[in-house]
Amino acid sequence: MNNRKAELAEHAAQAKEALAEAANRSGRAARDITLVAVSKLHPGSDIRALAESGQMDFGENYVQEAMGKQEELADLDVNWHFIGGLQSNKAKFVSGKYALVHSVDSRKLAQALHKKASGLGVVQDILLQVNIAGEMQKSGITMEILPKLADEVMEMDSIRLVGLMTMPPFFDEPERARPVFSRLRQLKDALEKQLGTKLPHLSMGMTGDFVPAVEEGATLVRIGTRIFGVRPPRI
Ligand SMILES: *Cc1c(COP(=O)(O)O)cnc(C)c1O
């Protein structure tokens, strides 16, 4: 086993252990939480190395970069997650090619994903990304718009709403993100009542704040730096 492969496997194992501890503390089962390894800006060879140790869920942010990796790693059974900002004119490169699109933040984008999935004859699972902390946060829809957008998405039969995602502002102290996570869970509960359907997923928690996220009910945590190390700059 080469050094990088051993290092990645070790980091992922440590992250999983920390996730399991947080799950136990809150009376949850570790198996109910999926670790999405955020591989953006890291090479496909890192993904391949980590997949060999059994980590199969990977998160990518950039359409072009991700397409290249999907091609390069087509022989692997990877569950791809699209977690980055997405313009609706690029939805055609994403819809139908990911296990889950976490970052749906407009009716226009939802419509474009639906249209492409419909053309492919598939159903694309999606999350709606909610901006909970308001001004401090750039991406996601406001809490006020969420009920209406969710209703509209339910009408689009080639995308399936399976939950919510949020990304709090960066806090030095992870505990400060906790109210954002508990708010997302409350919004999900309210939305389930409104829609009359279960929404199984809450995508929340990153390297710096995944512990409170898991304690507040995350089912998907998106961890990059803790596994792959510091990201190289985007060029
Ligand atoms: C980059 C990114 C992550 C991973 O962040 P780390 O701090 O490296 O764990 C998670 N979620 C989203 C949406 C991201 O863009």
Please, could you describe this protein's structure?
The protein has 235 residues and is an alpha/beta fold. The chain has one domain: TIM Barrel (Alpha-Beta Barrel). Helices cover 39% and strands 16% of the residues. The chain has helices spanning 3-25, 44-51, 63-72, 107-120, 146-154, 178-195, 210-215, 225-228; strands at residues 34-38, 57-60, 79-82, 100-104, 124-129, 159-165, 201-203, 220-223. Helix 6 (178-195) links the parallel strand 6 (159-165) and strand 7. The longest helix is centred in the N-terminal third of the chain and has 23 residues, at 3-25. It is globular, with a radius of gyration of 17 Å. The two termini are 31 Å apart. The mean pLDDT is 96. Residues 38, 40, 61, 83-84, 167, 206-208, 222-226 line the site of pyridoxal-5'-phosphate. Pyridoxal-5'-phosphate (PLP) binds at residues 38, 40, 61, 83-84, 167, 206-208, 222-226.
Compact description:
With 235 residues, this protein is α/β, with parallel strands linked by helices. The chain has helices at 3-25, 44-51, 63-72, 107-120, 146-154, 178-195, 210-215, 225-228; strands spanning 34-38, 57-60, 79-82, 100-104, 124-129, 159-165, 201-203, 220-223. The protein has one domain (2-228): TIM Barrel (Alpha-Beta Barrel), CATH 3.20.20.
